[in-house]
Structures are given as structure tokens and as C-alpha cells.
Write a structure and sequence with these properties.
Layout lengths: L3 E9 L3 E6 L2 E6 L2 H6 L6 E11 L2 E7 L2 H10 L7 H10 L2 H9 L3 H4 L7 H19 L4 H9 L7 H12 L4 H15 L5 H13 L1
Parallel strand pairs: 3-5
Antiparallel strand pairs: 1-2, 1-4, 2-3, 4-5
Helix pairs in contact: 2-3, 4-6, 4-7, 4-9, 6-7, 7-9, 8-9, 8-10, 9-10
């Protein structure tokens, strides 16, 4: 099994990159975010690899971080999510943003990915909600904070209201959630909506 490749960027495709490793070109299929973050042609690069082998297909999937690879694997445990849909989701948000969206049941954000309808977005949130906290630290420390501050079953009213207020100001769900999660941690459980909003705006301005 191949877990990681280090080589030189040899070629880019619409959904893949070819990495030259010791004269052998490995085709790694990637999310658009990963492709955009890759070095230029001829420059050294490394990819974490998910190796998939079926009866009629052998394919490598490449990721710049272990967190992205872990989410790629986790997403595919949900019925209806294959490798193509998993890459589409990871193309519109990073690991931390995805953890935040799932923890907050932000189906609209996940539903922006091609191939993800409302029902599938709801299923992803429902089935992965309890696992999102464990993966949140990979990309965004604020996502991990959701476990204490923004769990839907015990989230204090001011926290939810503050998130809604930031969203009404035009911020996206994951962005607003992450900011208020950080604000709630900084201010404590007794913080009220105005305090959370002010602190959340400060977090967004950093």
C-alpha cells in the first residue's frame, strides 16, 4: 500500500497531478483545493495517498495534509458518498471548515458541492456529527471547540443567537460558527449575545 509520495510535479490535469518519483510517474487524483496548493511544474512536492483497488480499477488519491485524507476516507463511510463526491466536498472547504459545518448541521454549505443534494447533505451531517469533533483539530482549532461550546444538544442560547447574528451580517455559517466558538471560549459560559458578537467580530478581523 502507498501512504505517501515525494517527488517532482510532472504534469497537471483537470482532476489530477502526475508526481515523478524516481522516474516513475504516479497519477494522483485530487480535490481542486489540493491542486491549487501544489507547487509549480518541476518543483518538489509531497502528497499523502489514499490507495483504492477494485476489480477493474486501481487509483491513487492525493492530499496535501493527513487531515484532508482522513476526511476523504470518513466521508465515504456515508451511504451515497463515493470518491468523486468526497473530492467535490473537499474542493469547496478545508478539513476544519468541514468539521465546523458538520458539527453545526450546516447542510447548506455542504450542499454547495457538486453531486450533493439536500438529502445527502443532511445524511452527512447526521452520520458524521459525533465524529466531527475528533477531526476538527486537524484544520481549524475552532472546530474542536464546538464540542464544548456549540454542541446542538447543549449549546447555550446566546451562542446560537450570536452565530445567527453574524450570519445575518453576511458571514458564512462555518465562518460565523468558528468565530463565535473562539469567542465563547475566551469569554466563558456567562457571556451574553452582545459580548459574543463583539468578540466574534474581533476574531474575524484577525
Amino acid at each position: 500500500m502507498i501512504g505517501k509520495l515525494k517527488g517532482v510535479v510532472d504534469e497537471f490535469g483537470d482532476d489530477h497531478v502526475i508526481l515523478d518519483v524516481g522516474g516513475v510517474g504516479y497519477v494522483a487524483h485530487c480535490s481542486s483545493r489540493t491542486l491549487q496548493s501544489m507547487p509549480r511544474l518541476g518543483e518538489p512536492a509531497a502528497l499523502f495517498i489514499d490507495f483504492q483497488m477494485r476489480e477493474d480499477l486501481v487509483r491513487l488519491y492525493g492530499f496535501r495534509t493527513e487531515g484532508e485524507r482522513d476526511w476523504f476516507r470518513l466521508l465515504q463511510t456515508v451511504q451515497g458518498v463515493g470518491s468523486k463526491v468526497a473530492l467535490a466536498i473537499l474542493s469547496i472547504m478545508d478539513a476544519g471548515g468541514l468539521a465546523t459545518a458538520i458539527a453545526m448541521n450546516d447542510r447548506a454549505s455542504i450542499g454547495r458541492a457538486p453531486g450533493v443534494g439536500p438529502k445527502l447533505a443532511a445524511r452527512i451531517c447526521a452520520e458524521l456529527k459525533d465524529k466531527a469533533h475528533a477531526f476538527g483539530h486537524i484544520g481549524d482549532p475552532a472546530a474542536a471547540a464546538l464540542a464544548g461550546a456549540l454542541d446542538e444538544r447543549r449549546a447555550p442560547g446566546p451562542v446560537s443567537d450570536a452565530v445567527s447574528a453574524l450570519m445575518n451580517l453576511g458571514y458564512g455559517g462555518p465562518q460565523a460558527t468558528a468565530a463565535i466558538a473562539q469567542a465563547a471560549q475566551a469569554l466563558g459560559e456567562e457571556a451574553q449575545v452582545p459580548q459574543l458578537i463583539r468578540q466574534g467580530l474581533k476574531e474575524l478581523a484577525r
